[in-house]
Description:
By secondary structure, the chain is an all-beta fold. It has a 4-stranded antiparallel sheet, with no helix packed on it. Strand 14 (205-213) and strand 15 (217-226) form a beta hairpin. The chain is elongated and about 95 Å long.
Amino acid sequence: MRFLNKFIIFCFLFIAVANAQWSADPKQPKQIATSTSNPQEIYLLKNGKDGFFLLWQDVMPGGRARMLLNYFSSRGESARTTNGVEVEGYYKSQSAPKVSSAVNGKVAFCWLEGMDDGSKWLFVQQANSGINFKWTAQPAGVPVTKPDGGITEYAVSLDIASSSNVGWIEKSSSGNYSVRLNRVDAEGSLRFSKPIQLDDGGTQKVSLNVLPAPNSGAGVVWIDLQGGKSVINFAFVDSTGKTEVSKVISTVEGIVKSLSVITLKNGDHYLIWEAAGKTKEIFHQLISAKGSERWSKGGRKAVTGKGTNSAPVAVEGSDSSIVVSWINEAAGNDDILVQKFDRKGVAKWAFNGVSIGNFKDKQFSQVIDCDNNGAVLIAWLDKRAGAPEIYLQKIDRNGKIEWEESAIPVSASGNPDKSYLQLMFDGKDGAIIVYKEKSRSANGIYAVRIPSNRQTPQGIVDAWLTYNDDEVKINWTATNEGNVKGYFVHRMQPKVKDTSWIEIDNVVAYPGAKGAYYTFDTPDGDGAVTYRVTQISKDNKVVAMKYVQGNFTRKSTQKIYVGQNVPNPFTNETTISYNVSGAGTVTFEFFDSGFKLVKKETIQISKGGTYSYVFKAEGLKAGIYFYRFTYGNFIEVKKMAVI
Length: 643
């Protein structure tokens, strides 16, 4: 019965871990936020190569808004359940969160908290990748300001000292607009007794950005709407609160429809904006951490192609470039273009950029990221087949389309309501796409991982090792398993010829796994380990192989373990090594595939140490068998095969 219970637990664990991995199937995306009524303001925040934070606002029945967070590794494991962690507060409502970039495995976020008296206070909080909140002495987090007027915009940045710089635009009862900033240090204390005022006047201020700067300083960008002009301003505030005179980055005739700012790894800030005057045009500028212009005064035109150009987005490339994408409307179609610029603002690809493809109808809401080799990954919503679906394309570092001309489908639901599309390079060889989808029954946040090395008809996408005390866990993911029968897992013994492979397990492929599998092994000793995962087709042919290496160190303080039988599979006899911590009784029980006991052996041990037991297959038919090792309260079950 204990064996059966363990077998059932193993099945449940298999399903749980399988569900923890990303899906690569557009028809079966992984739902990564389940306890949601109407998720909004969804943010994906990259945490280097390790994974990403997910923050969203959920509007509950009745209209109350709350905030939730979670963290996902690049392989799909979540820090908490898919319900996320709710930010506790005073709240009648928590609305419109804004977030910083991830710094040293943390993010800062700010929001408006509805209070009992009807006022709204601006709060800030930090969380790490375990979704542990930094300031818990009071509900919500740290109140940054309790404004007399109304807050129209706000933003936050996080520095390496774990200080949060929070900026906001406040509209007074007299109609004045003020741009203000305060800093919350790592202990949760306000750095300045009075907020630093960066601008004040009767003209409207919009498009606020708070940027990280050296030595716990902050850069602040905003637009001042002065009649028919839009003035883009920058101010630098050092760690003591000293403020330099704000600088005008550009004066635009007309309205700035969108403004995006990214901080580059060297501390410079890149600004790109869409000017909607007589025509729609896109300009950009590079400034230093303190606002000095790197390029010509007022910025440069980023796009020169004919037609209407709009909706620019930008990201820093791994090759020190700046990658920009925008939508070009010409001849009744919306075409998405991509261009790469060097740090001098010189375009590196085709004169008018690289088109993602010649598709009819509308393409929109594009998002971009770059891999480690300077290539660009771009996802977008596409109405070529009617209802919007998500597609993905890769452009190599030289501006050449790398995948199929039709691009790679990421979604295939047919539901028309998709939004909050976001994309990140997973740090290895794939792209993770996150989006919201609304169906007839519910709203959800979903994710799909698409390998960067394009899929073969069948294939093993990835394999990796994790360690747990006396065991090695061999994990792998696969795709397109329609003709796949299963997988063989072998271990090569250290210091043995490459041809000496021991079978650890054979795993049957099944749809419920969604391409994610694992098995366990207990090596006989410490040191280097090499495993081979072989994918087998239904006609018993080898489809693909994946090798994975690691170093195993036994961590158990009990020094009790049982190894995999060697050889495996076997015909006549096989040897099982085991280690015990002291004198006692060891029991081996052997079961056939129907869990019928076929042999039992009891061994008395006089002292702790390593021993071996030789099992003989006399009278046994070929097939799968299990052996259960018992020593005191220690029980371990392993599988072996007789041929």
